[in-house]
Amino acid sequence: MGRFTGWPATAYDVLLELDGDPPAAVRQRCRRDRERLVRRPMIALLQDLADLDESCDDFSVEGFVSPHYGRWQHQLAAIRYARNVTVGLRFDLDGLCLSGNWWPAEPDHLQRYRDAITDEISGSALVDLLHRLPEPVRPLIGGPMKRLPRGVPAGHPRADLLRLRSLTTELPLGSEDWLHTAEALDHVAGAVQQLRPFTSWFVSHVTGCPIVGL
């Protein structure tokens, strides 16, 4: 029997109390309810997802205390496929959103990324899979470089990708009634599959890690 039964409607009540810039007393008062109603359902969701798909068994769910201002308004989690190749999950007042993410983990990863983009086969493969994603790709960290990497001609067909130093793409699932039921697991599993070509490309061409279960 699955652990996940959906987010209760009262999860939104807690997040609404934490919206904006709540004082410390409000944050402290909401802390236990947020853990029970917002964070624990995310943990249960990812535990059940890992039972369905072993490639999703390396995950983390952010706690209430965070060094980043305002994180208490968003429940964040991540499924890790390789170092700095993740599927992120975010639950907040807008509902649930997944994202595919990559950013360089090692000094040579950015050069591996550029080499893979320059290569006609792997570079074209990334362009094709990005076109099939529902949302446009954008930088995850920082903006695109103004200049192309040294040695790349100005007219390169994938110049826009070569200017990026990280990539993310979002897959919003919204705030539908199924979020309050176990059916949300099926929607998340489907979204992970949609993002899989994106994450697999980076695992294969950039991190140098073997793809296990992808």
Describe the structure.
With 214 residues, the chain is of the alpha+beta class. The chain has a single domain (10-207), classed as BirA Bifunctional Protein, domain 2. The chain has six helices and five strands. Strands 1-2-3-4-5 form a five-stranded antiparallel β-sheet, covered by helices on one side. Helix 2 crosses helix 6 and helix 4 runs antiparallel to helix 6 (184-207). The two termini are 25 Å apart. The mean pLDDT is 90.
Task: Provide key terms for this protein.
single chain, alpha+beta, BirA Bifunctional Protein, domain 2, 5-stranded antiparallel beta sheet, 6 helices
User: Number of DSSP strands?
Assistant: 5
**Which segments are poorly predicted (pLDDT under 50) over 5 or more consecutive residues?**
none
Count helical runs. 6
Q: Give the proportion of residues in helices.
A: 40-55%
- The shape is elongated
Elements, N to C (H/E): HHEEEEHHHEH
Distance between the termini: 25 Å
Mean pLDDT: 90
CATH class: Alpha Beta
Organism: Microlunatus parietis
InterPro entries: CHP02453
Pfam family, one: DUF2461
Protein name: DUF2461 family protein
